[in-house]
Structure formats: structure tokens, C-alpha cells
Amino acid sequence: MTSISQHAAPSDAFRDETPWDVGDDGDTLHEECGIFGVIGARSASSVVALGLHALQHRGQEAVGITSFDGGEFFSHRGIGHVAHVFKNQDIFADLPGMMASGHVRYSTTGGSGLRNIQPLFADLADGGFSIAHNGNISNAMTLKRDLVHKGSIFQSTSDTEVIIHLVATSRYPTLLDRFVDALRLIEGAYALICTTPAGMIACRDPLGIRPLVMGRIGSSVVFASETVALDVVGADFEREVEPGELLVVDHNGVISSHRPFGDPSPRPCIFEQVYFSRPDSILGGQSVYQSRRQIGVELAKEAPADADLVVPVPDSGVPAAIGYAAESGIPFELGIIRSHYVGRTFIQPGDSKRHAEVKRKHNANRALVAGKRIVLIDDSIVRGTTSLKIVQMMRDAGASEVHMRIASPPTDHSCFYGVDTPERSKLLAARMDLEAMADYIQADSLAFVSIDGLYRAVGQQDRNAKCPQFCDACFTGEYPTHLTDYDADAVAGETEA
Amino acid sequence: MTSISQHAAPSDAFRDETPWDVGDDGDTLHEECGIFGVIGARSASSVVALGLHALQHRGQEAVGITSFDGGEFFSHRGIGHVAHVFKNQDIFADLPGMMASGHVRYSTTGGSGLRNIQPLFADLADGGFSIAHNGNISNAMTLKRDLVHKGSIFQSTSDTEVIIHLVATSRYPTLLDRFVDALRLIEGAYALICTTPAGMIACRDPLGIRPLVMGRIGSSVVFASETVALDVVGADFEREVEPGELLVVDHNGVISSHRPFGDPSPRPCIFEQVYFSRPDSILGGQSVYQSRRQIGVELAKEAPADADLVVPVPDSGVPAAIGYAAESGIPFELGIIRSHYVGRTFIQPGDSKRHAEVKRKHNANRALVAGKRIVLIDDSIVRGTTSLKIVQMMRDAGASEVHMRIASPPTDHSCFYGVDTPERSKLLAARMDLEAMADYIQADSLAFVSIDGLYRAVGQQDRNAKCPQFCDACFTGEYPTHLTDYDADAVAGETEA
Amino acid sequence: MTSISQHAAPSDAFRDETPWDVGDDGDTLHEECGIFGVIGARSASSVVALGLHALQHRGQEAVGITSFDGGEFFSHRGIGHVAHVFKNQDIFADLPGMMASGHVRYSTTGGSGLRNIQPLFADLADGGFSIAHNGNISNAMTLKRDLVHKGSIFQSTSDTEVIIHLVATSRYPTLLDRFVDALRLIEGAYALICTTPAGMIACRDPLGIRPLVMGRIGSSVVFASETVALDVVGADFEREVEPGELLVVDHNGVISSHRPFGDPSPRPCIFEQVYFSRPDSILGGQSVYQSRRQIGVELAKEAPADADLVVPVPDSGVPAAIGYAAESGIPFELGIIRSHYVGRTFIQPGDSKRHAEVKRKHNANRALVAGKRIVLIDDSIVRGTTSLKIVQMMRDAGASEVHMRIASPPTDHSCFYGVDTPERSKLLAARMDLEAMADYIQADSLAFVSIDGLYRAVGQQDRNAKCPQFCDACFTGEYPTHLTDYDADAVAGETEA
Amino acid sequence: MTSISQHAAPSDAFRDETPWDVGDDGDTLHEECGIFGVIGARSASSVVALGLHALQHRGQEAVGITSFDGGEFFSHRGIGHVAHVFKNQDIFADLPGMMASGHVRYSTTGGSGLRNIQPLFADLADGGFSIAHNGNISNAMTLKRDLVHKGSIFQSTSDTEVIIHLVATSRYPTLLDRFVDALRLIEGAYALICTTPAGMIACRDPLGIRPLVMGRIGSSVVFASETVALDVVGADFEREVEPGELLVVDHNGVISSHRPFGDPSPRPCIFEQVYFSRPDSILGGQSVYQSRRQIGVELAKEAPADADLVVPVPDSGVPAAIGYAAESGIPFELGIIRSHYVGRTFIQPGDSKRHAEVKRKHNANRALVAGKRIVLIDDSIVRGTTSLKIVQMMRDAGASEVHMRIASPPTDHSCFYGVDTPERSKLLAARMDLEAMADYIQADSLAFVSIDGLYRAVGQQDRNAKCPQFCDACFTGEYPTHLTDYDADAVAGETEA
Questions:
Q1: What is the pLDDT of residue C465?
Q2: What is the value of ipTM here, to two decimals?
Q3: Which residues of A touch B94 (CB under 8 A)?
Q4: Where is each Glutamine amidotransferase type-2 domain found (chains A, B, C, D) (predicted)?
Q5: Are residues A162 and A87 in the same domain?
Q6: How far apart are CA C88 and CA A106, in angstroms?
């Protein structure tokens, strides 16, 4: 979710709470949320904590869990990792009940306040209602303006809260009707897990941009952003929540499926395969690890290199590097060692000190690299600053040639569907052509996998240009929805001017 | 303000923050709030902190300040005393602007959460709106039910929030009209300080049950619950905000007075004179210290005692004891020493351990008391448990006779106007007659000042029975407003059954 | 105890822990410590906490408790009031055993670190040894230098630690012998409570400068700085530990008394009567309240005033004001109201902002004071800054005349026996004669009780000039011991130059 | 360093501070410390923090830094990771000076207190003295008993403090003489960095059991446990501190080398190569990564397997798995995915819940593993519990065969040189033969590299049985020093009985 308010809002008393190591060097793309819910389980809240822990890579700044014990709702939220915010076992005694849901988030500028931590909760006329959202509503500002005008009072600066107010003010008779009424007004990307006194609602936007899967542990029903969370809590994968599907589960485990949006063609986010999801997740029937390994194979075919070693930028480059090495026959070796003691990197929101961080995160394996020609494999290039430093680190360690191979096409458009991307004008691929990029990062050669190569790696014949099988807007600029809150210039970026 | 929600509400992540010494031994009545605002002052927020500090006796559990810098609103809130929550000077840099308002509160059961700490704030269609409330809205639950039904979402469990939603959803054209529209719908007791981008609004309910005064420091205008706060910030007292008056002050210091409720007869709370207000405050033109001293004089006339020493229960009994001693000629001596290191007493909300606390708070001055006949002067008797212990302490210290004199009439009805009283059935005076009370507390004699004696002490000829000059419902049961949310039985209490 | 180290010492990781409201406006004298111990009691540590709470006025900055469960020693220490550091009942479960001792301290500059919080503890060859000290060792620096040279390593910058090292390195065969050996080497003032595996040791320096009393609760033996702590824990006063006496109590409650220093004439600190001790304590057989009230009587005789009201500077001036009023016939009234929500005042160590604080602490009762001639009664004048402000406050409130009467002789020498006094050159009485002081504080008249009046008030005929019955060095400059660590100039002060 | 005191010691006030994720599943061996020092650098303390961060894998529980600014010593210590304890940049302003040293530690039972966090510091007669120690002194208890008997008072329960007291009480004239005098009395393993007003001292025990290297950044001199810390701070590796060498560096950068122990044959710890050191470190001239990869090669030769995939237990098994795959021709694939959001595992000291943790740390890559015969490569087996779970996880994910290969010989003796090992009786290899171990962990086959294979992998022809080139006592039981504090039974373990 994205911060949407430009309004004068009181500063938050808690802003000085130190965000944990959010693992951001400002030069990667960030999934902004992971969601998890379970209904019909003993100690539901601790199951949720474990599930969220497995989804921690989707959001490291804050975490919240809401539970329902048949009578009342309870919640606990905090800034930091799941393991930190829920380190005290006593917390779970304060989150009783057999239904619970939770959310991990990556913060966006200005939105680090506690009141933005999800699940959001409201007392509606029919009782409590919680909502956990992965995605971004691209007409939230427009809807909010209208709601405030009619008397709605917003508690947070989150786009997600718009959904709650739309539900609260809808004139339809039942909660489910009101909820569908609300969804029909919003555009963008959303996977949602809601809890109400009657049970749990899970749904995905019509295009299924953000992922959501369903599993079972015995008689309890589980929803999660990725299958890895099912594995970790010991649930069996049942199926994906389908794009445009809305599932309602009551306290007896009875599930009903609704399809309020008809049957549009799905467009799941392809970047989940490239980077966001855990390699041990299965997404749309496809093993993420295998997709990434296969991207490496495609890349080796499309962009071979004459080299001594294939070196991954750890850890995200490892599967593609294994594929590249296997296809090319060049040995796979750990030429870069990653510290265990940073997240994706060790820095707080904002970008001061970003540059000093690379070294704390990655260190060259000098003894291995010295005198060698290496193929460096990374998942993507965002601003290019990290790539530049990594290439430099390899040269400082004595590498005689550095050939950079990227396991995704050039990222040259911003995402408006729940991924934290820089403005388009800061994306290296939006600013330069391939040759200029190679120069910028000082690589001896640079190549990206082609968009068709990527589609092949994830199991398609090739990209269906008329009706692409995935949302690949970050690579192609083909946004599958309206972007009401964003004017055309913002979307196009100043690089187009 | 009182917690009004019986709804399922999520527990608050912060409930385990330790409330400070809230100074409650469960056997005194509590003013639940103090409010303070200033407009047109440099460092307005630090002026508010100082003012709230002087009003700390009106609410010890939590404190909040909201400021406005001409563009944005800022706020800081926390659990604990003013001196604790605002101990770091840096906080004031985060509360910039020349208008600020604040609130101290005493918590009620279940409502200790951060989100109930005032001033409450909302982004309305015309901009930010903050509200600080002293009093209690006696139809808040009824109004809230209706608002929620129409789609309003409440953030807190405070009755005060009802006012904000009434303003937000009012169809009148201007904010002031909408505010008056809201006030017309509420019943009960309220002194309010609101801030809006256009300036500050201060008002008192039509009967003026809760106090509110206006002062000036140079060109800035100040509002406060009591005059002592004016003294402490260096402001000159100007006048009381009149019952039913609504004052609007803009950023140029221009003040306009409105009287939306016509001109009903005022009924200010008489217990402010007896106990709540600081002795150095002036209330309705009457020095609180002199009122209390004079109650002692009346009490000595109405209920003399044959004794060696007049001993106050410190500190609230001291002025009446001075009056009693002066009138009776019996020497005033400190027969009980009060520790400086507890508030009104050292205990947290809830009532465990209440009993161990008396000793930590008060200790007999044995060398003085031994062998003496003493007149003990206290301000009131609530449940009677403290009186019993104090009498016992005097006897243990060797007092030969203990004559208890109480500087108020018997408290035998609950307050529904912003004072935290036990249910009627727990009030000693509602359970017993005078003789039984004397037996219960084991005093050699017991007397209360008469209701007319009390009225005389505060400067009236006597009580006007048809149209009493004060709200004295806690003594007489004559509630001056409807009590919509409370059924007749609750008001009457089971002792009437 | 005083910080003695000038050595390079590592800064303490915890120095930024916020000291609580230490109640210091820099213009009062401070007792630096209170001590309490109990042996043979269930939940000994919680008895100690209650006892220390009653001694909180003797030291507000830090508190520690050490217990012994027959096998091991345990301790908990922290910065802040007893009620804060021990607010969590679970702490007492971590302080098991039937013997415990504790200490409250007022910090001195540079010595706020946790490692200086007492009881200090060491593992000696014969087992654990804890020590809690009230007083000051006036040759500690000299002794420390020698000990360090021989290989002792100090953990704290406290003078008290010298005693432990002297015990540890003594060559005598038994712990008691080694302890006496250590005491023989130190000079100055000390009341000590030590715990060892064999039991508790309590002792007072040969002159008995600092107080220490013994009491009993059933079969347990209690030691405390003042009798008020006995009252609060429910112990019966037995007797004072005599000057120069060393009491050893074993785990069966067997007590043995030792007098290692022969039988010098006692010189207890007279300022305990004037200011330090609680009014409900009994010191040397004399009620502190009565002493102070009697000082007021003497003062009224020695320095009458033509006035309308006797007004105490609360709370320490109250007993003397009652005495003055009784003797003079002028009515006693509360012309100054003291806030409950500061300690002795609201400020942190260091003296910034000292000046803004008076108002937060005291407020004039304008309605009473306006137009009146008042006699103001205070306990002492240190720097004079507070007196000046209080007199000014009375005038601002409309007092027509202000006659200041001080319930102690002029304080014109520093204390080296455990009281935190400014350098002599900052004491008003060391800088000016009576008339100049009256001018400085802008009083219409000023008088101090005479030294003989003071001695009479505390029950003596008069002061025995050859061999004074008390240590009154702060008034007379007659120090009863060597002051090895302090050169003559420091003692005399630059005012003598 | 190891906790050595069995004495009654007061519990620490800070024990309830939550240790961070210490990364311990109780089934790995732990290096207990990393040390780092720099002299002659601006912002020396922040260089140390960065260096310690790179050594975080050597100790995750606590960290401390001491600095010296030419006049005074400063220190900051805390529980948690370097990035946590030093997250606030302001801390470095409180650690001024151009010389600083630091320490990270892994706690041992009962020794988590703040006072055990190094560097330890003392004010000696010649000034401040700090010491940071990696290793374990095997006669510390014996020495301590003697020191305490003579009057030394210990502050910590750390063996390291013995060295300070030996220095403090030595009768030699210069600090260096006293330090050498102290070292001659101790036995065991130690790499030390000390700071004194005159400069820095770095030394290694005569056998060089624990590592220590020297580097330079411009004119500053750096010491660190491993070369990776030199890389991260931007220092150039100069040479190892040699076994038995003592280097003194003054504030002008002048270095003198001393060899107080003559010239014994070195016996550096071989487990540093196998597991403790970072793969990007160079130890004794040997790349740790290459050593581990080569162990995999040796293992493939010694213990081939008929399988489809080589799967490392991440991350420590990866280099050996790469070697095994390269030698065997079986593809290397990530069959187990490791979460980034735990340290080595997510659990606190003590071993409750150890069992639930494996899943949070590692998850099977089901899509890859299902139906495959896999060779699992891990670094070592300690208790065997983790191996059992990992094998089980592979089978649950559908692996048809699981062949476990271990990149070290069987660990069947405890370490007494600074590595936290279970008692011998809990080591799987001390309890069972190879076949029984294979059964216990339920692997289809199990093999360890031979001791000679290990020696070959680290660059030796083979192990010199008479005078082994390394300390390999954990594999062979041949301890290279006396173990004064440990009786023969403890060393041998009850399994020998």
C-alpha cells in the first residue's frame, strides 16, 4: 500500500521508534507487503506470526496481527521484524481466538507511523472489520477526497483505509454486498485478507496482479501471499485464490467462492518470479527457483561470455548463476561473500549512507577472483549504483574481466501496483541505452535476458503481445489498469520529455 | 470523558506501557481531565506543557499536546505525567507553531489506550480539527450508535470522538455552524478547547458544569480549566468562559463570543470547590482555599468537638483543618505526615494492593498524637476504606479519641459529568446512615458539613432548593440534565431497590 | 558518599538513562543517602523496598537492593525512585532470601553511573560481601591511591569502595577483624549496613555523625537511617545503633555489639533535625516534628514580627511556621501552594533551567496574601536564589510586607560528611552579613534562629562550646574530624582569603 | 572466554534485556569471540564498529568498544548485534580518540551480564588498561582463587579478568613487564588486544591457537581476528601476529615485536578453516573458501555417492558442496532455502524451543528435490539433532535417497580453547560409531572426511602425527596444553568410562 495523504496530519508520537534493519540499499525494488491469515486454528495468532516470519522478505519495517476470539478482536502491531515485535510469547496470550490475520510491510517515505501498520481495523455497524492488503489502489486519493467531503474521518495515510470507509458508507444490506460494492469502486492491485465476526474473506484483484494462495492444516484454512508460508506453518497447499475471486470462510470452515468481476484475463506480476518471491515458493504452478535457474539458462544462450567463473551476486543471483553455469559449462563459484548480519542491507529509510553499505553486505572472495575473468549474475538493475560498486569490488579483488548478466529485462518503468520503485527518471534503464549502462557500471560487457526469454523461463512459449500473460509494466510500460491518481507525466516520467 | 464503547475493539499494542503513579487509592473521586490552550504565543506547545503541569491534579494518567504552525498540525501524546511525557525538550521542536492545546486525563477502566489520549484529531474536509474535552457526554453511546450505522468509523472509545463525527457529517456550510450543530445534539457536561486552521474555539456547556477560564499573556489568549494554570504560565486572568458561551479566537487575536444555547441558569460543579480544583485557583470569583477554610469554620460551628488537636488528612484536608482550628481554638498540628514520593497514592489502575498503600502515603506523627484527643479533618468519604485506615492509624499511634469531621456533605450519588465515581452501591453514604458510618470507620464521632453550610462557605446565603446555584447531584441526586445513556436504575443505584 | 576518582575512567554506557525527577533546585542541601537492611524476614527484599521508599527523601536518584538466600547473593539496581526501579513485582522473585539490604542515593556530579549505585558488592575470599553507606569518607582518595598502587582494581568512583578493598586486602584472620581493621583506617562519617554469608553488620562512625536505628518485626531485625522506615514496614523501634558501635546479627537473630573505637563523645549531625530527616522520625530520642515546631517557637521569641499571617514555605517550613504562629499568635495560613507533581523540584542534575522551576513548584495563594503583612518561614538559606524568588512571588501576589524567618542558623560552611553542599564561596551566609542578605533576598526583615536557640529547640540547655553535643560544622566551621583529602583552602573557602 | 566463577555472585540488574537473535540452534559449535583494534585513526571507534560488524559471525550476543582520546578512556557496551548496540551515530561522539578496540562475544550459560561484556577495563596504578580476549584460559579458576585470597576483587565472571589482576598485582617495574609476567602465568588459548595510555598491545598465545592478523590503513595500524575485517574497513593485510608474538604499537605508529615465550611449534585451530572463519578470510596463508571447497573435493574422492543432486545445508555447507559437485560431476542445486531473517538460527540462550526453529531457518525446495537422490553436504555434526531434521525435511519433500557427507572428521571431543562445545557426552560422534550415527540421522549413507583428507585440503601433505600442524583436539582428543582447571574425567567425558 502507498501513503496517499497530502493532508496536514499530526506528526506521530512514535516516529522516533527506530525501524529495524530494513534491508534496503535503495537500489533494489521492494515488495511492500506480505499477508497471512488462518481460520479455525488453535493459537491462530502464533500460526500467523510464523507465517509472517516466512514472508518477512516481503516487508521488513513493520508487522501487525489481529485476532478474533468469537466475541472480540485483538491486535498487536509494532515497528521491526516479526521476530522482534513478537519476540515475547506472552503477546500471543493477548491475541486469543481461532481466527487471526497479519501483515508485514515495507515502509514508504513519511508513512512509517504506527497507525499505518496493518491489519487496519474498524468497528463497523455490523461489528469489527480488519483488513490486510498487499498491493496499491491507484485511485485511492480520488476516492479519499470524496469520502472526507462526506464526513469520513481517516485514521491513517494508507490507501487501504479507503476500502474500509467505502464498506462503512455503502448502502447495501449485507457486509459482503458492501464489501463487493467497495471493491467495484477501487482500481489497482490488491490481495486482501479481511476478518469479520462471521469469518474470513480473502480476495485478489480482477487481474490477480499480487499473489495469494490457500492451504489447509487439518480443518483450518490458511491464506498467504506465497506457498513458502504454507510450508513453514505445516499447511498443505490447496490452490491459488484466483484473479478476481473472493473467498469467504466461516467459522465452521465452510468456504464459498464469489466472482464479482466476471472473468477478465489474469495478469500476475512477473517480477514475483524474478525477484520478490522466495525461491522455494510455487507461483502459478511454477517453481520460483526453477524459473530463476531457467532464466540463467536462457541468459547463457542469449548472452554467452568467455570467462573462467560464474559468480552470483548473493543471494538473489544464485539460482540464475547456477543455470548460467550449467548451460555454459563455466564453473559456478562464490566470488562474493554475503554477510549474514544485514538484511538485504543495513540501513534505515532515507538514503543517507546508502553508499557505505555495500561493503558491509558483500565482500569479494579475493583468493578466488584474482586474475580471473568472471561472469557476474544479478537479478536486476534499478539505479545502477549497486552494480557499479559490485563490478568495482570485483576489479579491486583482481578480476581481469567482469561480464555482467542480468536475470531480467531492463527495468525502465515505475510500478504502481504495490512495489516501491524510484521515479522513472532514476531508473538506469530509463536513462540510458545498453552500451551507456555497461559504461556506467564499468563492466566489460552487459546483457539482460530478453522479455521473451523471460516468458520462456517462466514456462510460456513467448510473450503474447496483444494480451500479455503477466503484468510486465516495469519492463514494457504496458500498465494493465487505469492509474487515476497519477497523471500521464508521472507515469511516463521525465525521461520521455 | 468516559469510555463509552461496549463494542469489540482491538486491544492496544501499548497497553503494557506502565502508567505512572496515577495517584489513586480508589477511595477518592477523580476529576477526569484538565485542558489548556494558547493562541498567538511563541513556543505555544511549551506554554501548554507548563499549563498542563499546573493542571496535573486533574488527570495523571496521560497527556497530549497538539500544535498548529499555520500549515500543519502536530501532536505528541503519551502515558504518564506531563513532566514524564514531555521531559525531553526536543519534543517541543516537533510541536511548532503559535497555537497549541493540550489535555491531561485520568483513565477509566479499559480506556487507557494511546488512541484515547486527547486532544483527539481529525482531518476534516476543511482541514485539521483537534478537540480537548473536560466533562462527559451523557448521550454519547446513543449518538455513536447512529453515527456508526451511517458509516462513521470511530478511532477511540472516548465519548469526545462523537463530537468530531457530528461535525464531520453535519450538512451546515461553515465549520462553526457544523460545530454548533454538533453541540446542539449532545447533552451532559463539557468544557472544550478546539483548534482549527482558522484559530481556537473554547466553549462550556449551557450549565457550565465544568470550569473554563480565559487569560492573556501579552497579545496571546489562553484558556485553562483553572486559574492556577494562568498563574503558572504568567498569564493574567481575564474572565471565565461563561456557561453556554462559545468563544472563537483567530490568529490575529480577534475574539468573538457566541451564545448558541440562549441563557439557561448556570449550575457549576460544587465539588470543584470541595476537592477537585487547586486551592490557589479562583472559581466563579471565589478563592478555593478560602472556600475550604470556610467549610472548616462552618464545620466547627455545626459539629464542635472536645479535643486537643486538629489534625488534617494531608494535603486536601489542610485548609478546612486550619478553618476548624481557628474557629474552635483547638491547635492545628500535623499529626499525619504525607510522603512526597507518591502522587495521591502509589498504585496503578485496578484495585489490587489498594490496601497496602495507605501506609506508604501517610504515616502517623506518633510523638505528637500519642495520648491526645484529635479532630481529624478530611475532604470527603467515598467508599470509607481510607477513613477506616486513617482512624486506625491514629489509634495505633496512641490517640485517645478520634473525632472525624468531613468538609463536604455525604457523597451518596454517582457523578455522570466527568468525575470518576464508584457505582452508587459502593458509596458509603449510599449504604449507611451517619451512625453506621461512624461505626464502620471506628471513629468516636463523625460529622459532615451540611449542604447549606457548604453553600454558605462558598459565598451563598443558602442553597436555592428550586433552582440550586450549583450542580450538587453527588450530594443530592438532583441531576441537572437528561442522562440518556444511563437507565434510571443505574442512576438510582441498587441501594434504592 | 562522594565521587572520588579523578582518574581516566570509561564513560558509562548508561549515562543517558534519564534520571527521574530528582527534586533538586540546586538551592537546598541534600542528604546523599538512606540505608535499610533486614535479616530473618520472609520476602526480605520487598521489606527493604518499602523501607527505602520511606527513606526516599534522603536520595532520589538511584536505588539498589541486595539479597542473600543462604547460598547466593542477588541484586537489582537502577536509576530513579524506588517506586520506579522496583515497580515490577517480579523483581522481588529475583531477589530471594531472608536477608536483604538497600540504599537510596542522591547523585553528585559525574557520579550518576550505574556502577556507583549501592549496595556495592564483592566476592571476597570468604564469600560475598555487600555494603551500603550513608556518609562520606574524608580520606578516601588518599587510601585509594595507595590501594591501586598495590594492585587493587576499583569498579566504581565511590568512596565506599575503599572500605571493600581495605577489607579484601587486610591480613587479619576473620572477616570481622578485617572489617574493623578497615574501619580503623578510614576517617569521616559513615553509617553502614553490610551483608555477608554469616549475617548482617551495621555500624556507625565513632562520632555517630550519620543516624542509624534498629528495630524488630517479630523475630527479624531491621536497621534503617530513620525511624519512619521502621513505622512504614511495621517494625518496632528498639534503639539507635550507638556512635562507634558495630552490631553483628547472625541468621538466627543473635546480635553481638562491638565497640572497636573506645568511647568518644558523639557528635550527630544537627541538620538532620533541621531539614534532612522526615518530621515523623525520632532522632536521638527527639521528635523531629517537635524540634522543628520548637525552632519556630524560639524564632518567634528571638525575632518577632508585626504581621498578619505566618506563611510557611511548603513543606519543610510548615512545622516551624506552626510553632511561630502558636508562639506569636499570628494566624498560620497557606499563602504558598505547593504542587504535588514535582519532587522537591522538577529538574535534572546540572543547573540549567533551575530558575524556571520555582514557579512550577510553588504558587502564591493570591486571594489570601494580597494586602497582607506576612512572616515567611523557611528551613534554611543556601545560595539564596530560592528565597529571593519566593519573596518576589509574595510581593507579586500583593503582600505588603515580607518578613523572612529562617529555622536554622546561617549556613556558612560546606559539609564533608555526606551532605551535598555547594562550595563555601557560593553559600549566601559565607558571602554576606545579615543585612546584606536581607537586601539580597529583598525581604523587609530577615532573621535566623541562633545556634543556642537551635540547641534549645532540640532539647539541650545550650551549646557546649568546648565539646558541642552535635556536629554543627555547617553553621560553625568546627569540623569534628580530620579532612585528609581536602586541603585547608577548600575547607575554609575562598571567602576567607 | 569462558565464565569461570562458581562463586555466589549477585545477579545482574540487566539480565532481562532481551538478547538479540543470537543465531544458535544449540547444535553447532560457536566461536566465542572476535576482536578488533585500531590505533592512529580518526574516528577510531567507528572503524572498530565496522570491523566488529565483519566479525559478527564470531559472537552475536554482546559487543563493546573502548576508545582512548589521549587523556581518557571511554566505553560503550551492550547486548545484541553490533548494528543494534551501535545503531545510533551519536554513540561514536561519546567514544572519541584515535585508538579504539572492541569485542564481540557469544555468551555462555550464566554469563550474559553486562559486566562480562568486553573489552574489560581497569584503572591501574599507571592508568587505564583495557583488554579484549578471544580464547579461553584453562587455569583461570585456579589463578582466580589465589588472587581473591590475596585481596583482588573481581568484577566479572570472565576468565579474562584474571589477566588484569595479574598485571595489577605484578611487582615488575614497567607495564609491559607486568603484562608479560601475567601471560607467563596463564595457560590456554588467547588472542588479545589491549589498550593503555601508551598505545596498543596485540598478542597471541605461544601455540597461536586463536587467529589474529595485522593490517594498515594509511598510517594507522589495525588488528583483527580475521582478514575479512581488514577488507571491510579498507585496510591492507600486512601479516599475521605470529604465535607467541607480542606486538606493541605506540601513538606514533612505531611497532615493536616481542617473543616472551621462545619459539614453540604453532598449533592454530583447524576448525577455523572448517567452520568458524568467514569463507572470504585468509588464514595462515590459506583461503578459507578454497579450504572448504577442497574438503568437498576430498570428500567426493573418499566418499562418492550415486545421486542426482548435490545439496548444501546453507550457508556453511555451500563451498564444500561446490567442491563435491565439481569433483563428482553431480549437479549442485539449492535443495534447501535458508531464510534471511534468522541469524544462524532464531533462538535465545538456553535450549527451549530449539526444535521448532529448524523450519524457520531452512525450508526444502520441494519442486527440486522431489523424486531425487541427493547428496547433502554439511560442515559438521555436533549433537546430530539438526542433521536428523534436515534429512527428514528432505524425505518429506520427496527425496528418494539422502546421502549425508560431512566436511570435517567426527567431532568427538570438547574444546577448551574458546569454542562453546557441549559436554563430550552429548557429542554424537563420542556416543556412536559411524553406522549408528547414520541410523540416528536416518540417512541412506553417511561419511566424514578423514583427518588426513582434512589436512590435505588445508594444504598439508598429511597430518604429522608426532607434532600435528594444527590443534585438532576436537577430532583427536590431543590437547596441546595443560588443562589445569579441568580434571581428567571432564576432559575425557563420561563416554570413556
A1: 93
A2: 0.89
A3: 11
A4: 33-252
A5: yes
A6: 35
